[in-house]
Amino acid sequence: MADKETKSHQTIDSLLDTEKTFKDRVAYFGRFLWRDRGGVIGLTVFLIVVFAAVFAPLITNQSPFDQDLRSGKLPPAWKEEGTWEHPFGTDSLGKDIFSRVIYGTRVSLMVGLFGVLIASILGLLIGAIAGYAGGRLDAAIMGGVNLILSLPYLLFVVFIATVLGRSLLNVILIFGITDAPIFARVTRGEVMRIRESGYVESAISAGARWPTIIFGHIIPNLLGPLITLATFEMSAMIFYEAGLGFLGLSVPPNEYPTWGNMLAAGRKYMTSYPWMASFPGLAIMFTSLGMNLLGDWLRDVLDPRMRRSRK
Amino acid sequence: MAIILQVKDLVTKFYTLDGVVNAVNGVSFELNEGETLAIVGESGSGKSVTMMSLLGLIPMPPGKIESGSASFNSEVGLCDLLQLSPEEMREIRGGQIGFVFQDPISTLNPILTIGEQISETLIRHKGLSKEQAREQTIKLLSQVGIPDPELRYKAYPFQFSGGMRQRVVIAIAIACTPKIIIADEPTTALDVTVQAQIIELFKELRDALGVAVIWITHDLGVVAGIAERVLVMYGGRPVEIAQVADLYKSPKHPYTLGLLGALPSLEAKESKRLVSIKGTPPDLLIPLKHCPFAWRCDYAFDRCWEEIPPLISVGDKHQAACFFDIEEGGPHHD
Amino acid sequence: MGRYFLSKLIQSLVLLFGVLFLVFMMVRVTGDPAALMLSREASPEQLEALREEMGFNDPALVQFKRFMSGAILGDFGNSLHFKTPALPLVLERLPATVQLASVGLLMAIIIGIPIGLVGGFTPGSVVDSVGRFVALIGQSVPNFWLGLMMIIFFGVRLGWFPTFGRDSWNSVVMPAFVLGLPVMGQLVRLTRSAVLEIRGEDFIRTAHSKGLEPRTIYLKHVLRNVSIPLVSVIGVQFGYMLGGSIYIEAIFSWPGMGGLLEQSIGWRDFPLIQAIAVFTSLIVLLLNLLTDLAYSIIDPRIRYGR
After folding, report:
1. What is the pLDDT of residues A105-114, one digit of tens each?
2. Higher pLDDT among residues C100 and B328, named by residue
3. pLDDT tens across A162-185, in order?
4. Is the pLDDT of residue B310 over 90?
5. Would you list which residues of chain B are within 8 Å, Cβ to Cβ, of chain A?
6. With a CB-CB cutoff of 8 Å, which residues 7-26 of chain A face chain B?
7. What is residue B273's predicted lDDT score, i.e. its pLDDT?
8. Which of B105, B109, B158, B160 to mutate to probe the C interface, most C CBs <10 Å?
9. Chain A residues with CB inside 8 Å of C154's CB?
10. Which residues of B touch A309 (CB under 8 A)?
11. Per residue, what are the HEC states of chain B?
12. Is B120 in contact with C212 (Cβ distance < 8 A)?
């Protein structure tokens, strides 16, 4: 717009940035927040969960492991027999539910983060190879991927968990491996799309070398869809962990509190002491909702096609 | 010649989150029966939006037609297109005014046969039965040069090549023998050789049917082959209207001059640099109180920055919106 | 069209083989399937007896052949818990699961798609915002937890529905609703985005430029295109609902295959688990095949193998 400036005249009525007042800027920012309110909420939820996981000991002074049979089955603090020492009440063995929910964030986050890490790295490698190689190798790999994807996921997760036994590591491994196909499929799609679009060819013919192509062209385009996918899958994994815990296939409750095994324990007492299962369930819902919102927002923001039309 | 469409002072704006886009800022022109008028301009000049506004094809939340009139000599008499009710508008669209759009692959519904897509216009506007429409469609298909029309009736768009698809789109446009066909960059998405074929087809059909054509394009090269008159648009405004020959021989607006200079010519005696117009098109978000082309103009002087130049007559059936007289080398004498 | 179907059929058969292989392998992955099946306190003699009985000492290839030939005929051995053939036990439970999944899917379709349609045709409206919000919640709520909550609230406190079992006609309502809720949410969002996307397509503009009646445009042009992704999702989801109802059936004590699976896990009854796994996969594969078929009928591009 250099021409504009050099030939500018007092009669040009354009909106110059310096004329915006502070109030205008706040309003502009506020509009952003409102437009992206999904993402804002999602991010906030995510940060709260992370905060809870990291600063758990600071948030609650109760230990999630202490059994106190005298204070067993106490209801939440706002009910008659409840106390504020145990804001969410206690379970059948007297363990404080609030602290167990807070400490449970650690397991959920670990399962989510590491599970997605494993799944994405595995999936990325497999998908990239398939997408780039094409031909028979691609067909073979994708055959395997589609096999795993077309099976009733839950069934096999449960099956594998039954066989391997209960531990946090197993859970993470299972999710990592069974979720890898989804990442593989997305990666392969993107790699193929990029490969067939002109600019990789032009980059090559312009003399770009492998590292440049991979890191400068392919990976930036992969990041968007992968980050979005990772967010959704993290949310799903937290879900599935809860599900496995519910069936008694996740971490045993004495070892560490997870929202899943809290649900399982509380199931027996649903009618008489419903809060035991309600709070972990709410925690799951809260986290899942937040991450889904975050994923939705990321998808809108990171999709280059959408970026233009957002203006 | 009788005037079939007369547009006066059309103003269309889009109210978006980022501000008000002044897409069309006072466009007026006439179209005679059977005449071919080309509307030329770069992206963002408002050429497509103008025509879309006339037929209610712009999305009416962000968009709004602020003012103007468009009197159309329809089958039932004179009417103002901008004042019609939705039902009346639907009668005219497809029936008396046909459309040819730019990209044939996305313009056709991928899961319906092409025969069906042509027939539905006939059924809608001419009240034909399915059988009659089918027969008529097959005739149309051969008229636009598609071989084996009976077989092709049941084919799907993806089974055709780009040029063939565009022929199908043309068939849809002429199906109900409209009075006007609006073609919005119909050959831009096609190969050059196919372009020529489609232009030829257009000319044949136009001559055979006597239909008036508005041909929207950014390519001045195409214009010469098909148009009788040309309207040049810039920044949502008309800047020059002339008969084709006059426009090429003696362009009166600096923008037109620039456009012509940017055309590669086979007759250049020495190798000449292709002149591109410096600068970029105006930001339509900013309402202007001066000539929209002033920034990029080699001839701009004070008056150009103080008023918006109106269309003034500069020759026989020739108007230009400019205060400067290029040939004289100085401002016009009013 | 025939070729397309045939290739899909062959793909499914290959997948089925893969499933059988996986199921076979999984039980043996720890090296000692007998130890897996008996409780920890089992004595070495008991373990050896089981190995003999189940043929775990035979060479791997022999075991595999035995397993495969048995599986094709529907013979998965006897359930450890019931001591009767495994597959018939599973088949016995099939109708209940099918009923649950069908009703759940129906609810999801009847409620979800119309809301999505309204949202797509009037984005930003109240119905749209509320619909999307509810959809989001529906997809984020852990269904087992929701099931528990609903039992307490609607079953115990309000007494509207029975809280377990399959005895009366309205027993299916709550479990089906909980099972169908995530799918409902997905359908709302998918329908909405499909409608919005299709409406913005050029060929819809063409339809308008032909002066067609709005009703024609919506039905013939918009909705028919929208149904393509919908059919695909519905088919796949139905398969998942059939295979993944384990939690719902557990909570509501619904006598279906999922409930049986939960119990078998507790009993470590692997022949039964295998039978359930294979049979459920078979159903899912069948459904995928049917979905592909339906898909190819609606979308001619698939049919003609572009």
Report:
1. 888 888 889 9
2. C100
3. 777 777 888 888 888 888 888 888
4. no
5. 17-18, 278-280, 286-287, 289-290, 294-296, 300, 305-306
6. 7, 9, 11-15
7. 60
8. B109
9. none
10. none
11. CCEEEEEEEEEEEEEECCEEEEEEEEEEEEEECCCEEEEECCCCCCHHHHHHHHCCCCCCCCEEEEEEEEEEEECCEEEEHHHCCHHHHHHHECCCEEEECCCHHHHCCCCCCHHHHHHHHHHHHHCCCHHHHHHHHHHHHHHCCCCCHHHHCCCCHHHCCHHHHHHHHHHHHHCCCCCEEEEECCCCCCCHHHHHHHHHHHHHHHHHHCCEEEEEECCHHHHHHHCCEEEEEECCEEEEEEEHHHHHHCCCCHHHHHHHHCCCCCCCCCCCCCCCCCCCCCCCCCCCCCCCCHHHCCCCCHHHHHCCCCCEEEECCEEECCCEECCCCEECCC
12. yes
pLDDT in tens, B149-173: 888 898 998 888 888 999 999 999 9
Q: Which residues of B touch C228 (CB under 8 A)?
A: 111
Q: Which residues sit opposite C12 in a β-bridge?
A: none
Assess contact for B144 and B206: CB atoms under 8 A.
no
CB–CB of A7 and B294 under 8 A? yes
CB contact under 8 A, C225 and B109: yes
pLDDT-based confidence at residue C273 (cuts at 50, 70, 90): confident
A9:B305 CB<8 A: yes
Q: Which of B93, B103, B111 sits opposite C209 (nearest CB)?
A: B93
The two most distant CA atoms of chain A are separated, in Å, by 85
Cβ distance of B107 and C221 shorter than 8 Å: no
Task: Mention every residue, 6+ apart, whose C-beta is less than 8 A from residue A265.
Answer: A91, A92, A253, A276, A277
